[in-house]
Amino acid sequence: MSRPFEFKIIAECPVTGARAGEFSTSRGVVETPLFMPVGTQATVKAMSPRELEEIGARIILSNTYHLHLRPGAEVVAKAGGLHRFMDWPGCILTDSGGFQVFSLSDLRRVTEDGVEFRSYLDGSRCFMTPELSIEIQQKLGADIAMCFDECVFLPVDKNTSRSAMERTVRWARRCLDVHTREDQALFGIVQGALFEDQRLDCAGRLIEMDFPGYAIGGLSVGETHEEMYGILDTLKPVMPKDKPRYLMGVGMPENLVEGIARGIDMFDCVLPTRNGRNGNLLTRFGRINIKNAAYERDFSPVDPACTCYCCRNFTRAYIRHLYKAGEILAARLCSWHNLHFLIHLVKDARSAILEGRFPAFRRDFVRMSEPFEPEGDPL
Length: 379
Description:
Blueprint: E1 6-12, E2 19-25, E3 28-32, E4 34-36, H1 49-54, E5 59-63, H2 64-69, H3 73-78, H4 82-86, E6 91-95, H5 98-104, E7 108-110, E8 115-118, E9 125-128, H6 130-140, E10 144-146, H7 158-178, E11 185-190, H8 196-209, E12 213-216, H9 225-235, E13 245-247, H10 253-261, E14 266-268, H11 271-277, E15 280-283, E16 286-289, H12 309-313, H13 316-324, H14 328-354, H15 358-368
Parallel strand pairs: 4-14, 5-6, 6-10, 10-11, 11-12, 12-13, 13-14
Antiparallel strand pairs: 1-2, 2-3, 7-8, 8-9, 15-16
């Protein structure tokens, strides 16, 4: 018998409201706060499932839009579901495809029924509705599914944002009405751009539908950090305390720490793997571009305090050499390090919450993580 989705708070910072919790699914217990690696095409780029387990990943994100177009939900279902298809034993969250439909398609038309768009693979016409998104996600068999929402990109006027937010609420109801899998939790998505009244309105109406969790979408799309934090501060008092809160598409280390300080439990982003493939590495002291000439004779680890496979075994000089030589291992090692860094940054924040020292953790992180880039010409 499948285990229903359950979430509970174990500890909360009395100063900031940062939360340490856990949620239970049929695949076990997952501790929060957490960072989810993104496996858009049923794979996290440059990483095997076993390697993801080794760095501490317990849940990954995959994408309804991409898997619908290729290989198709029917193929994944015939393979036994997404977990078996990609040989991933942990939890999976599938995004609804809403963001990709709006960001990747040059030609699209939004109606009350759904969104017509052209496939990025062959240009064929496709139509995605809230009902179809849920049908696909149920066939994929993820542990957590997302409602199909309408995204807007900044800058946006208030009327356009309001229209998209209202449609997001109506589509959420349609998603809820057709969702039937008892072993899959369905999260609602709060939209409203940078308009506080719209965010509060959207959150309130979604909360009335009583989803098992709530995501905050439409951020990390060009706004300043202060604008992002302002929306999180606005929503924090009204979000249900007994439900997980998921900040979508956010992966900058400082955003993770500040999001946790504002009660966020879940994060995802392509940043660690995308930046890793380009030689940009995250460290306790800021970001470095390993292709910089300053690292040609630097025989220290990427981050001396990091315990990942990359930092335990290789030097900055060697990784820079791999990039100059065009070796695939460079992208793999940098992706490995960046994912480990973010997963363990959030794990460290959780430990700080449990031990009653999160304000000091937050303060120390801000002090240590000033942007850092040595002099030298990138090669």
